[in-house]
User: What shape does this take?
Amino acid sequence: MSWARELEELRRREKLAEKMGGEDKVARQHGRGKMDARARLAALCDEGSFREIGKIAGKASYDEDGNLEAVLPAPFLFGKATINGRPVVATADDFTIRGGAADAGISRKMVQAEKMAHELKLPIVRMIDGTGGGGSVKTLEQIGATYIPAVPGWSDVVANLETVPVVTLALGPTAGLGAARVVASHYSIMVKGLSQIFAAGPAVVDGLGEAYKGSDDHQQAKEDLGGSGIHTRNGVVDDEVASEAEAFARARHFLSFMPEHAGQLARRSECADPVDRREEELLSLVPREDKEVYSMRRAVGLVFDTGTVFEIGMHWGRACITALARLNGWPVAVLASDPSFLGGSWDAKTSEKVERFVKLADQFRLPIVHMVDNPGFMIGRDAELAGTIRYGVQAMNAVYKATVPLASIVLRRAYGIAGSAMSNAETYQYRYCWPSGDWGSLPIAGGLEVAYKSELEAAEDPDAELAAIRDRLDKVTSPFRSAERFNVEDIIDPRDTRPLLCEFADLAWRRLHAET
Assistant: This one.
């Protein structure tokens, strides 16, 4: 009276599910240079840790006697796994089954994956390849009617954004709901040449009569419409990588900085980098000529724990570098001006990027380190057309609303409203300034001729008078004058930056642990 026969039936159905869309479809997937869904799950997760849920779900066909003939598995796989030894919900679309369209699957699987992450407070990783839930014209004919669109379980997607780290990897052409699922995340990745994202693909765009005409080459048309070169530059997706393996590695790395859910604190790592390391290079990093640029990425690399800097969104909002890093093993969020792009001025996209990143840091309780060289918001007609001031104020609002500890290092410039957005000025200013500091309500050098117009017109030698004025103001703008009045807290030797920031990280995490 055992149940061995039923277990044999279960194993048979599991083997059918493992065939995915069939040998030909899987071979076609591999022929495109893409891994299949099951291989992706094995590569992403800790070895042997993935436990699939709903493996045998799908569309079965039976003979006239009711015996199982075949199974078309649902084009969505999910289950519990571990990444870096910590539990996660891992999901993957199966493009070998009708391009991953959920019309061929069971939408409840996707809903349950999101619910599992939310209710058990587990990070969720989505590997998206295809429409990921989009419909098809053929299906409408089969149904015999159209329907008002709705997305089952989208409220769970929204809830997850508020409660757990959400990572998405676009691993193929991704449209409709699939594209929406990519964007609804805290960290997203595209693979160059492999991934494309669009609200609707080239054929639909052309069919609707838009002026866009893609290449006759189907793959090139998809790249031209929604390749990674577009979406990792406009801020739709955070990062671009060269391979699926690199995408998996970056997803794992991002999660290593995160807690498992909002309300839990992230973990400290072992640190072999001396806290008291003082880099001689920092002393001469900032040039004396105010219009010369230098490498802020180099400064970041010299200050934080060696090898821990994980930059996010390198190709968009480029006037500010955003990264996760560690100080004495403690995870922190890093904002750092990039004077090599727009002189470090915040344009609309940079402001949007800063706002999003600060909100991420605050949500998951990561202290913020802001390395400042900001000459202000971008100015000019193009900046006004882009609505820069609105996005800029929203970025400043995010900084003021953040409740995690924040430390500022002013390397050089801090001008105007954007300069004041380095921190919340109403709170304790944990701030250090380098001797190269230069700040004010507006750059003095750009307004001398206007401010001293009458004196210059009356002077016998206007050039000499202007030089004399500059010399006087150079003394007034010395950072030591500000320190005299305690308008800045401390001017430091740049080589002391790392030791002081490690001290900040220790104190910041002491406070965060006291809050829990």
Q: What stands out?
A: The CA atoms of residues 275 and 503 lie 8 Å apart. Residues 497-515 form the longest helix (19 residues). The chain has a mean pLDDT of 90.
